[in-house]
Amino acid sequence: MEQELLQEIVSYWGTRAEGYSEVxxxxxxxxxxxxxxxxxxxxxxxxxxxxxxILDIGTGPGFFPMIxxxxxxxxxxxxxxxxxxxxxxxNLGKYTKYxxxxxxxxxxxxxxLEFADETFDVVISRNLTWNLEKPEQAYxxxxxxxxxxxxxxxxDANWYGYLYDEExxxxxxxxxxxxxxxxxxxxxxxxxxxxxxNIARQVPLSAMERPAWxxxxxxxxxxxxIQTDSEIWKRVWSEEERLNYASTPMFLVRAEKSAEQSFQLxxxxxxxxxxxQGDISFANGDIVLPGTxxxxxxxxxxxxxxxxxxxxxxxxxxxxxxxxxxxxxxKTVGTIVILKVLNRPAFENRAGSLGLSDGKNLNRVFxxxxxxxxxxxLAWAITKEVYxxxxxxxxxxxxxxxxxxxxxxxxxxxxxxxxxEVSRKMAEQVDVPYMVRSMVSSGGAYNYAASKGIAxxxxxRGGMGAWTSEEVNSDKRDVRNILSSLDMYQIxxxxxxxxxxxxxDVCYQAASEDGLWYxxxxxxxxxxxxxxxxxxxxxxxxxxxTCRAEYTGVVLYxxxxxxxxxxxxxxxxxRIVREPEYDDRKEQIVHYWEKRSESFLEQRRSxxxxxxxxxxxxxxxxxxxxxxxxxxxxxxxxxxxxxxxLAKEDHEVFGIDLTPxxxxxxxxxxxxxxxxxxxQVMDAENPMFADETFDVVISRNLTWTLPNAEHAYxxxxxxxxxxxxxxxxDANxxxxxxxxxxxxxxxxxxxxxxxxxxxxxERIKSxxxxxxxxxxxxxxxxxxxxxxxxxxxxxxxxxxxxxxxDEFYNPAPMFSICAVKQ
Length: 822
Known about the structure:
The protein has 822 residues and is α/β, with parallel strands linked by helices.
């Protein structure tokens, strides 16, 4: 399909070559020639003309090469349309005295350039990005071929935004009217506008807000300097162009590639695109740490990852070792520094977690002292030589050889507001049940880093002087997810089970004397105010101390050894102050369906008029009580398809969806169909209805999108009346790749949403635990735990619904689950 679209774009522009060339001729003959040259030259890097290599992408009939070659520059110009290149060749001979002497013309795809890395000083483009199938990939390619310090200049506009925005459409139509009144050539209507609009609907940027989209993409590529100018059109457009395009003003995106092509830390220097593994020396060679430096091909931020601040905490150390081996420069944007064991002497002598010679806790002495003890000198070296180089910090810990804990994460809370906010967002990516805001700014490695402007977290997982592959893999997954969320590592974020709940007022109880510790709770247990946490006794069993909870909370860690020492820790617990303010995954899901809401409305409108609607009602009526008016909840109703069908059968129907645009469209569609439904924006996982409200809860293609499907099932059974029916139609979409469109009919919706949206869907799926489940067996097991009595499964549903391979066809095998509340 991509290749077909590309060929259609090429074919279209082939027919436009002659007319486009005439537009360029007008520009050459008028004041625009000098205006454009001035705009370009003021953006160029400071370099002699004869030394500068310029690439013009999507050159068309060759306007930029003509004015630049005449001004003394050497230009390489590429286009994918043969007719455009022929016209450019003709124009260079006709309108310049140098012809092809200073210009090289080549046929090439803007999204797959055939040039080597770091070839050009300047990359320019005009009116091209908007009609590319993969504009993100194009930007990546353009930055790749730029030299360090090189400049990208992209002139473009929201050309066909009016296809997706009513206000833009009205402004566009006003332009057409004004042009007609002034008796000017209409630059839209003198082309094959229907053909162009059809192309515009299939490429992603027509529906995007630009240049905000361009800025975001370039930031993700680690570009060091990005500027936009939304009034550049005022300097280069003729009066005729201003009247034609008043509703779509041209903007300039200027991006500068970082001139820094290596990263230096201690005595090690690493070039872009390379990885170093080995020892790194600090403090003039007095401190040598095992490390890895991964320098991405593209410049960007720097992440520091450390293990072994406490050298008896092995999970973090092993995670650093494996991350150093596995992370790749090709996927890295910016730089990742991994220091695998900070307290190296104690680790190599199996001497516990304190300094080998001074007995100090490294995580209590930051910022350190250059003339102090062993741990103080180490902290000083990290503070002075490492922290100034980094932007983010992940410190990997575990319970020491005497500590057992539930996995949780600290984030820096005593720092500048923006540092705390980023630290918290990093913590929210971690697959642990709890997060704690730290309110100290010195002593700890990550605390002090945050006070110096570095967003920082400390991750706790494992303990008791041991490590497992499962714990190490979890640490690695968390690190990759954080890197991905910061646009530093180009992978899909992995599935996680938790969004951490905030824990505050952490109480760190210490022993008042030596003795034997007998805990009464386990890490992760919820304890009530006054609950017994444990006792300390002597060798004869005599009670020395009783530890009780001062308030209701969760146990984060406790001493796991029999022996405790005076002043040493025995247990820590904290108060859960609130659930997460929002689930980042839900935010992504809502944003995704918001973008798909209009096409969903059109598809549901068509589906209601199609024979498939009767097939769906037949399947539903087989499962729900007959002969009476039912009160029905349609969960994840989307544009209201099921709600409308059921309301037309005189049932009382409530439809809920978390995406406001979907609810707006459902209301509109219900009005069109004269269906009496009630629609509300509401979270499917937390329906705000009383217990035993509905006779039927129904859903289609929703469960696979939920971060916490188990909780959702529990809530749906809660709002069902006793004897009520839960009817869920879904498929194991987590196992399907929606970006794989082979075998789908040409009219299918997946071709209309574009590859970028399909890939976004895959990224979201990868973060949802249900994507890893074996369904519908998983669903049945969950329902059995949630008051479900009789459960019926039908795995042949799709074969009865999708009789034709038409626009509604679903290639994934659908199943139905019917559960009766007992």
